[in-house]
């Protein structure tokens, strides 16, 4: 049996859809420009930077002089937590019309996140301790709040990504149902087995709507506070299919590895476990390129 190719060869040109670089209220290991520069080691094509607190498009625009000399493209987006006014169509319109590529519905302001982290759980307690910080995605009868429909209209207009954030699976289902009804093609569920609690059967329901399932190397890297064995990730890929899967980093936090290093370690582990190189390449390059609408 032939040995698997080196991960560096397969990962060349990857796109990271989930990078927590700075500036940010939480301590970060590197800023957006530093992360993009380090990505050049793998000829990283693009990076989507995420903050739980603010619209990262403004960061990217402020760094454009530094980014102009870096090959890796950097894009921003907005997470609809309390710090931006919750599900706020005005903030979303500004973000997307200034070049934003993604809208994450509430993450640490979601009830689901707070239930999973009653004491903060790695997030400063001040971000989750007050009931007023909860930002509901749905009403009590399970329907999207009115503002969410306005946000989806903006996502449809700009052909950008909509993510279920850290929402309850039932609420993500309603969000994706309404997104699909609008013809939105770029839907994403992040780390389904962390906070959210969506099993493979439910994720297949989402992928049938056209959604992608994102997993993060930061949760599988043996040098990055690993939560799970890479074999678990391979099982997910086989259950859902590489055509519906994205692998991102979810890194940038102080004291954790650089995304490139985690991609290399986890990518090699997957290849050693028997994942075909073409499948890995599809999940780290082709699928995220589609979601960001990068030219062929």
What fraction, in percent, of the residue positions are helical? 40-55%
Shape: globular
- Strand sequence of the main sheet, in spatial order? 4-5-6-7-8-9
Average pLDDT figure? 93
Spans of 5+ residues with little confidence (pLDDT < 50)? 128-132
**Could you say what the CATH topology is called?**
TIM Barrel
Domains (count): 1
- Which structural class matches the secondary elements? alpha/beta
* The CATH architecture: Alpha-Beta Barrel
CATH class: Alpha Beta
- Helix and strand sequence: HEHEHHEEHEHHEHEHHEHEHH
Sketch the major β-sheet.
6 strands, parallel
DSSP strand count: 9
Strand content: 5-15%
Distance between the first and last residues' Cα: 33 Å
Radius of gyration: 18 Å
Identify the CATH homologous superfamily. Metal-dependent hydrolases
Give the number of helices: 13
Structure characterization notes:
This protein is α/β, with parallel strands linked by helices and 296 residues long. The chain has a single domain (7-292), classed as Metal-dependent hydrolases (TIM Barrel, Alpha-Beta Barrel), CATH 3.20.20.140. It contains 13 helices and 9 strands. The chain has helices spanning 7-11, 32-39, 57-62, 64-67, 89-97, 111-116, 146-158, 169-181, 192-196, 200-208, 230-240, 259-272, 277-292, and strands at 15-19, 46-49, 73-75, 77-79, 102-104, 161-163, 187-190, 212-216, 245-248. A 6-stranded parallel β-sheet has the order 4-5-6-7-8-9. It has a 3-stranded parallel β-sheet with strand order 1-2-3. Helix 5 (89-97) links the parallel strand 4 (77-79) and strand 5. Helix 5 packs parallel to helix 7. The longest helix has 16 residues, at 277-292. It is globular and about 55 Å long. The two termini are 33 Å apart. The model is unreliable at 128-132 (pLDDT under 50).
């Amino acid at each position: 049996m032939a040995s698997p190719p080196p991960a560096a060869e397969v990962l060349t040109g990857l796109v990271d859809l989930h990078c927590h670089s700075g500036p940010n209220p939480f301590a970060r290991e590197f800023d957006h420009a530093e992360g993009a520069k380090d990505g050049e080691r793998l000829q990283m094509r693009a990076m989507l930077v995420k903050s739980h607190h603010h619209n990262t498009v403004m960061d990217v625009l402020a760094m454009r002089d530094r980014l102009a000399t870096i090959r890796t493209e950097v894009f921003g987006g907005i997470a609809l937590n309390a710090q931006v006014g919750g599900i706020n169509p005005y903030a979303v319109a500004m973000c997307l019309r200034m070049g934003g590529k993604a809208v994450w519905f509430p993450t640490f302001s979601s009830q689901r996140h707070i239930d999973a982290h009653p004491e903060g759980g790695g997030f400063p307690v001040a971000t989750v301790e007050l009931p007023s910080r909860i930002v509901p995605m749905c009403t009590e009868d399970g329907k999207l709040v009115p503002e969410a429909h306005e946000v989806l209209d903006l996502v449809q207009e700009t052909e950008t990504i909509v993510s279920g954030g850290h929402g309850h699976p039932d609420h993500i289902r309603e969000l994706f149902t309404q997104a699909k009804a609008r013809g939105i093609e770029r839907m994403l569920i992040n780390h389904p087995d962390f906070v959210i609690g969506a099993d493979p059967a439910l994720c297949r329901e989402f992928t049938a709507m056209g959604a992608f399932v994102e997993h993060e190397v930061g949760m599988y890297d043996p040098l990055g506070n690993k939560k799970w064995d890479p074999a678990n990730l391979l099982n997910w890929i086989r259950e859902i299919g590489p055509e519906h899967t994205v692998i991102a980093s979810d890194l940038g936090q102080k004291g954790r590895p650089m995304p490139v290093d985690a991609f290399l370690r986890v990518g090699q582990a997957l290849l050693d476990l028997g994942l075909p190189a073409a499948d890995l390449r599809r999940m780290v390059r082709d699928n995220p390129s589609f979601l960001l609408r990068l030219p062929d």
